[in-house]
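Researcher: I'd like a structural prediction for the single chain below. Treat it as a standalone chain; there are no partners to consider.
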Amino acid sequence: MPIIPEWKALYFLCRLAVGLLSLVLIFATAVPLLRSDAWWIRVFDFPRVQIAALIGLTLVGYAVLHLYGPLRPWEYALAAMVGLGLVWQLYSIAPYTAIYSKEMSDSHAVDDSNRISLLIFNVLSDNREVAALRDLIRDNDPDIILLSEPTQWWLEQLAGLEDDYPYTLFQPQKNHYGKLLYSRLELENPEIRFLIEPEIPSIRTKVRLRSGAVVTFYGVHPRPPGPKRADDGEDGGVEEEDEKENEDGEREDSDMRDAELMLVAKEVKELGDVPVIVAGDLNDVAWSHTTHLFQRIGGLLDPRVGRGLINTFDTKSRLLRFPLDHVFASRHFLLVELRRLPDIGSDHFPLFVVLDYDPGASVANEELKPNASDEQEADEAIDKGKSNG
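Model: Treating it as a single chain, here is the predicted structure.
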């Protein structure tokens, strides 16, 4: 006798659980469409793959429930809405799969005099795997090494690297935003700049290739959206008075990140028809509205498009990984190689990219152009970031 009531109760609980999950997933899909820089909205830009997978499981759940009895009209409505959500999520991430056409074409050049290879790595301040990084550099032999989050400790431990990389630019810091740049290619007018916030540095320099051609290079690591992060108090940490200053300046929302990226993109546009590379930990995913706006304003191509997600964060989780470390380039470049390198102790994987500068590459590459609304949105983001910085 009690079997039927127990079965009905279980069936009801399953329907309730699937319905509640549907509402959460609909919210998670719709809220990033808001053009707000509130951190709790912008974080939903990141897990599109994970949300798509959960939506797929939810639709399977509705199909299974339907086998055991008719669904209510509101359940059909929820199923239809999450189905639309799945279409939107897949549409957003499809460009970062092999089924999509490549935004940056492949290079087939034999001559490597216009070639530039880059190793991009967020070392993580308290990571101590220096030997592993040295081995990685030796094995991949990059022309340029851009390190994010290094402290003075990292700079000291990497002493001697200048023997192979004589052109350098150093800005070690204790607040997770330091930068080290090593290059075997000649750097011209290298400079550390603080574009939006006085504690967040960025790099701009010209790089002379082996052929003699000159490329403008930007290295960036803007502040991420999210809850305030307490800095470590040991080795990679800050002194007490500096810690308070940094904590007070910590921004939860994405306005500082967006402003810095838009400022760099506007600079790139103003440079005109010259080869440009922008690299670093952007603290934003490849498919976000901000990243796409950054690309259109600067006319920058993403070598990931048509090749794969190539997630670089977080090494600690197989389920929650995102493409946060990037190398963007102007349409003057063709791609030779794009690889994620092994985990060497950080929460980021290193990224290795090889590009060929080809003045005729624009014929093969897709051209990205902003529209009037893009320009206005970028200007507004810069103004807001500067006013809050």
